[in-house]
Automatic annotation (TrEMBL):
Protein name in UniProt: MFS transporter
Subcellular location per the Swiss-Prot or TrEMBL entry: Cell membrane
Keywords from the named record: Cell membrane, Membrane, Transmembrane, Transmembrane helix, Transport
PANTHER family, alphabetized: INTEGRAL MEMBRANE EFFLUX PROTEIN-RELATED, STAPHYLOFERRIN A TRANSPORTER
Keyword Transport: yes
Membrane-spanning intervals of the chain: 34-52, 58-81, 93-115, 171-201, 234-255, 267-289, 296-314, 358-378, 384-406
InterPro entries linked: MFS_dom (IPR020846), MFS_trans_sf (IPR036259), TM_effector (IPR010290)
Record flagged with keyword Metal-binding: no
Record organism: Jatrophihabitans telluris
Main location class: membrane
Membrane topology according to the record: Multi-pass membrane protein
Classification of source organism: Bacteria, Bacillati, Actinomycetota, Actinomycetes, Jatrophihabitantales
Domain Major facilitator superfamily (MFS) profile: 1-410
SUPFAM superfamilies per record: MFS general substrate transporter
């Protein structure tokens, strides 16, 4: 192979990997998110460490995470109804501004040494209340910026961004906590929201492809639930994520315990463990952006791989090998998230997309009020390794149940669902 041919292939792969960034609106939005997400991950680490510092309890840590996600479980589906009714960009401007204000309040309470556990709990709950409306609007807004052809690429690159921030934010947070204190992390996060709000205000609205707002009517939430129930290509990924999100994606509850109790480390060890996951997820996200597929079958494979590598992290004999294993966990996690998200958005009808993505948020985040305390209690009682093992089992069970469903579809034993065989089995490149 000549150098010129190799260069053309590399350039072609690069264009394919980053194709959605050729969209000017998405590029602006992406840059604002890049700044804000680093601050968000700094706050995630700082808040977990603050609760652990105040209480020394893994269960209390699980409660704080549960309170932040409880509103998503209770009100998340209604947040999707609102997202289908309104201008998503304007809604996001308001809600992102409020998130910055909440971070500012927590930062001021912490740096003045006035913070109490109940205040952390209250602010976590208010942030979760905000998230139940912001999450479905943000998820569905991506399609309005880039269109169907670039959706998988955009979602994958957004996962890369989230996890690049996960690699940078926690490591920076660990240093800041050691040198300047936990409260500085919250204040920097509050400042970071300026970037995302400005990026949303600067979008070229004439280039957006907004879905027609749903007319306000009674029964729209029930209508969305009925739509999901009769659409296997949406119902199966949602059920998978409900189980995986409940017990596997509880890393901010489990990893602090692993860092402190299993390996005898502190905030810096926790930060580097989280950063290792982020580094792996960047690599995994770039692969999915360039070569990934969507569809239930692809999601089943990713969930099974995710379970296996979490199992590896559960038995890692030293901190070094734990970081190696968590790098693989990060790479596998982004495959589950990006493939599940893209599959749902591409399968959902435009007028239902907000409600479907709200249920995705419920499955991923809203399950944490159940899974967070469970993972925290298991980790506190049996150690952080047991908390990781619990997540590994959840992934493998979810993949196994979905695989059984796919086989039943192929054999025609699903009866009335047989008409959905082709969409369920389909994988898109």
């Amino acid at each position: 192979m000549t150098g010129a041919v190799l260069a053309r292939r590399v350039n072609g792969l690069g264009r394919q990997t980053f194709s959605s960034l050729s969209n000017r609106n998405y590029r602006r939005y992406y840059s604002g998110q890049a700044v804000s997400l680093i601050g968000t991950w700094m706050q995630t680490v700082a808040q977990s460490w603050l609760v652990l510092q105040l209480t020394g309890s893994g269960t209390a840590l699980g409660v704080s995470v549960a309170l932040q996600t409880l509103p998503v479980l209770v009100l998340g589906p209604y947040g999707g109804v609102v997202a289908d009714r309104v201008d998503k960009r304007r809604l996001m401007v308001v809600l992102q501004s409020l998130m910055g204000l909440l971070a500012l309040v927590l930062g001021l309470l912490t740096v003045t040494h006035a913070v109490r556990l109940w205040e952390v709990y209250l602010l976590a709950f208010l942030l979760g209340l905000n998230n139940c409306f912001e999450n479905p609007a943000r998820q569905a807004f991506v399609l309005e910026m880039v269109g169907p052809a670039e959706l998988r690429n955009a979602v994958s690159l957004n996962s890369v961004l989230v996890n690049a921030a996960r690699a940078v934010g926690p490591a920076v947070a660990g240093v800041i906590i050691a040198l300047g204190g936990i409260g500085i992390c919250f204040l920097l996060n509050a400042l970071s929201f300026v970037a995302v709000v400005v990026s949303l205000l600067r979008l070229d609205t004439s280039a957006l492809q907004p879905s027609t707002p749903a007319v306000r009517a009674r029964g729209q939430l029930r209508e969305g639930l009925r739509y999901v129930r009769r659409t296997p290509t949406i119902a199966v990924p949602l059920l998978m994520m409900a189980l995986i999100g409940c017990l596997a994606y509880e890393f901010q509850v489990v990893l602090p315990v692993v860092a402190k109790q299993t390996f005898g480390g502190g905030a810096q060890a926790y930060g580097f463990m989280t950063a290792a996951m982020g580094t792996g997820a960047v690599v995994g996200g770039l692969w999915v952006a360039a070569r990934g597929r969507t569809g239930v079958r692809a999601l089943v494979k990713s969930a099974a791989l995710f379970g296996l590598v979490i199992g590896g992290a559960a038995v890692a004999p030293s901190l070094y090998w734990e970081l190696v294993a968590l790098t693989l966990v990060g790479a596998a996690s982004v495959g589950v998230m990006a493939k599940g998200n893209s599959t749902l958005q591409l399968e959902a009808a435009p007028t239902m997309r907000g409600r479907v993505m709200a249920l995705w948020a419920v499955a991923f985040l809203g399950s944490t009020p159940i899974g967070g305390p469970i993972a925290g209690a298991v980790s506190e009682q049996y150690g952080g390794r047991a908390g990781l093992a619990l997540g590994a089992v959840a992934c493998l069970v979810a993949a196994g149940l979905a695989a059984v469903f796919l086989r039943s579809q192929r054999s025609g034993s699903a009866g009335g669902l047989a008409a959905g065989v082709e969409p369920v089995l389909e994988e898109r490149g």
